[in-house]
Amino acid sequence: MFNFFYNSNIFIWIEKLIKFINSIFFVLLLIALSFALIFSPPDYLQGNSVRIMYVHVPAAWIGLASFSAIAFLSIINFIFKIKNLTLIAKSLAPIGLLFTCIAIVTGSIWGQPTWGTFWAWDARITSMVILAIFYLLFILTHKFLLEESKANNISSLIAILGLINIPIIKYSVEWWATLHQPASIKIIGTSSIHSSMLMPLLLMFFVLILYCALIFLMKYKTEIIRIKKKNLKRI
Amino acid sequence: MINNLILMDGYGVFVWSSFMITFLVCGIFYYKTRKTLKKYEKEFAKEIESLSAEQKKIVLENSKIASKILSAYNKTI
Question: Which positions 11-50 of A are in contact with B (Cβ < 8 Å)?
């Protein structure tokens, strides 16, 4: 009856991690904000509006990374049917949606001083909106489909289908003539961003990753308790 | 200097609104997530408390998580 109660060590680790992140988060946030808003230099072309990058770019990275992770977990779950992976994907989805929306909104605000408009149906922006729609579909499937196995299958399909959109987002600025600038930071090859801007950007990314970890752990813990509650009702 | 920080050569409204929206939304999201977690913890602890002494003993002996949740909840009340 209690064979599900095997992941107690994970649960204890979650509690420890939540406490640890809570203890360092605000100090790191203050440091990152100081660099982003005060110490980093303005751009030679965009002036101080470039500071929007310090929330916009990490938000977009997190939105993309979360969906890629969800799709990857869904593929594995589709094959091996591991219940824990569904919980992880379910806990990641709201975080991804939140940061995708933040990327769209801050991008729109950045668009006004740089492009002269808040909105354009540009390839990058449109593909990001499509990503938000995929996130919404994934979350709504779990919310409204009561039969768990059916919800898992459909949401996995949505995530796998949505995976097609990820390279479209990444390469949209190269494949089409867009208002959005090409990537300044490259994993392979030389980045065109100066270290005085790259450092605050990475610092802000790290702080937002910590925030995501905190939310993820709380959501994952909630999911575990929800399952335990269900098991308890069977007694 | 403070003026420069607020106005940012005319871009202040865009920069500050971006940061404020981001951290306000993140703050609300954190609050809501934490509230839901606490609600579930409370409900779970109450359900354990409502079990008979024997059932409660079985649950707590077999599940470290259940006893963890219960002790965490008892600390908050």
Answer: 11-12, 15, 33, 36-38, 42, 47-49
